[in-house]
């Protein structure tokens, strides 16, 4: 994917003059970076509903720009960071052009090494009209982002990927760039089409077809079970994992990419956040069970960014059970800074509570000792 330039928002909340001029990536797909420096000085500067505009960048022969809402795009998204992708006009300046078909997605730049690099190809094709926007109102809660690894030295970087469908804009009439690897797409199709599948799992009433050789190659646990005959038979029943979690587990095994919770809409609603954390905790335990160490680390990194008072009890219990030392330490650091629990109990005693108590009991304790 071609580089489509950088927009720099300085500590004064304005677009840096050196990044104002438009930039053309010269390809049908490209990504633009929005760098926000001095976040703490600008976080409360624009009120809810007001935005900072990026520079113009060209992808697929069309002009685009981003809107960055530090305090949310509207009252429903207050307390969140919102971003949007907007079609400015055609490269020829034609504002009467018909709707443009394109795919887009946003990510924090430090996420991209573990987010699904081909995920944009699965995004729904959207109709973009001039000055209309593709809005991600709840990109991330500010309180979560401010405690996450995304914010470094009071700065963070958002990446916007754009693929213009049907674009053909290189000088010789064809896009001659070497495309990114599509191996994960082929393996995903293998999983979806079930072609050559030789094992079936029934997970709480939902069936999944898979390939023994792929499972054995990716998981030492599956390999041991297959070689010992544990997974023999027409259908293997699994009752202690939710079907959507097992589906995500298979997705990772076949594509080596971080699965994303399935939602009806492209944009998550704030109310679904707790459900996603519960799903992520179950996926972490499944990754630990089948010794998928990379997936386990991916889950932990996402959970670190999701530690707050209403979730820390659930997270530390799973972290203790799944032997996730760094995640457990992050939970203890949060408890130390947001409650007085560690003034009454030692760290070892809190860890023992996490091992032996239910999350509901821990939640009651945390509420009683909340700062």
How many domains, in number, for the residues?
3
Low-confidence region ranges: 111-119, 169-174, 263-271
Say what the CATH topology of the largest domain is.
Apoptosis, Tumor Necrosis Factor Receptor Associated Protein 2, Chain A
Q: Give the SSE string.
A: EEEHEEEEEEEHEHEEHHEHHHHHHHH
Q: Sheet bearing the most strands, described? A: 6 strands, mixed
Strand content: 15-25%
The second-level CATH architecture of the largest domain is Sandwich
Assign the structural class, choosing from mainly alpha, mainly beta, alpha/beta, alpha+beta, or little secondary structure.
alpha+beta
**Ends: how far apart?**
47 Å
Count, helices: 13
CA gyration radius, whole angstroms? 23 Å
Strand count: 14
Name the CATH superfamily classification of the largest domain: Apoptosis, Tumor Necrosis Factor Receptor Associated Protein 2, Chain A
CATH class of the largest domain: Mainly Beta
- What best-fitting shape do the alpha-carbon axes yield? flat
The percent range for helix content is 25-40%
Arithmetic mean of pLDDT: 81
Task: Produce a short descriptive summary.
Helix content is 34%, strand content 23%. It has helices spanning 39-42, 142-145, 183-193, 212-218, 220-228, 243-255, 273-289, 293-304, 312-321, 325-338, 341-344, 347-356, 359-368, and strands at 2-9, 23-24, 29-36, 52-53, 57-59, 62-69, 80-90, 100-108, 126-128, 133-141, 156-164, 199-203, 206-210, 235-238. Strands 2, 4, 5, 6, 7 and 10 form a 6-stranded mixed beta sheet that branches. It has a 5-stranded mixed beta sheet with strand order 1-3-11-8-9, with no helix packed on it. Strands 13-12-14 form a 3-stranded mixed beta sheet.
């Amino acid at each position: 994917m071609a580089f489509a330039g950088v927009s720099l928002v300085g500590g004064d909340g304005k677009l840096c003059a050196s990044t104002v001029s438009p930039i053309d990536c010269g390809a049908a797909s490209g990504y633009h970076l929005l760098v926000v420096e001095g976040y703490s000085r600008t976080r409360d500067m624009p009120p809810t509903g007001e935005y900072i505009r990026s520079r113009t960048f060209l992808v697929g022969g069309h002009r685009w720009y981003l809107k960055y809402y530090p305090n949310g795009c509207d009252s429903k998204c207050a307390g969140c960071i919102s971003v949007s992708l907007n079609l400015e006009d055609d490269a020829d300046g034609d504002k009467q052009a018909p709707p443009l078909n394109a795919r887009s997605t946003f990510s924090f730049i430090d996420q991209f090494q573990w987010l699904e690099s081909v995920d944009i190809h699965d995004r729904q094709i959207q109709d973009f009209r001039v000055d209309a926007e593709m809005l991600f109102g709840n990109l991330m809660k500010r309180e979560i982002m401010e405690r996450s690894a995304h914010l470094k030295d009071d700065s963070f970087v958002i990446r916007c990927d754009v693929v213009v469908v049907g674009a053909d804009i290189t000088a010789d009439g064809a896009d001659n760039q070497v495309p990114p690897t599509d191996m994960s797409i082929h393996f995903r199709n293998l999983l979806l089409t079930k072609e050559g599948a030789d094992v079936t799992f029934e997970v709480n009433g939902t069936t999944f077809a898979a390939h023994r050789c792929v499972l054995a190659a990716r998981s030492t646990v599956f390999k041991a079970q297959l070689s010992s005959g544990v997974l023999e038979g027409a259908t293997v029943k699994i009752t202690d994992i939710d079907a959507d979690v097992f589906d995500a587990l298979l997705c990772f095994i076949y594509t080596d990419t971080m699965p994303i919770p399935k939602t009806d809409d492209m944009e998550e609603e704030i109310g679904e956040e707790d459900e996603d954390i519960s799903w992520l905790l179950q996926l972490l335990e499944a990754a630990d069970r089948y010794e998928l160490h990379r997936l386990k680390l991916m889950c932990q990194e996402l959970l670190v960014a999701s530690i707050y008072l209403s979730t820390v009890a659930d997270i530390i219990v799973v972290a203790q059970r799944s032997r996730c030392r760094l995640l457990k330490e992050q939970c203890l650091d949060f408890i130390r800074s947001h409650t007085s629990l560690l003034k009454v109990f030692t760290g070892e005693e809190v860890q023992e509570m996490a091992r032996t108590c239910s999350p509901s009991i821990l939640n009651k304790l945390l509420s009683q000792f909340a700062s």
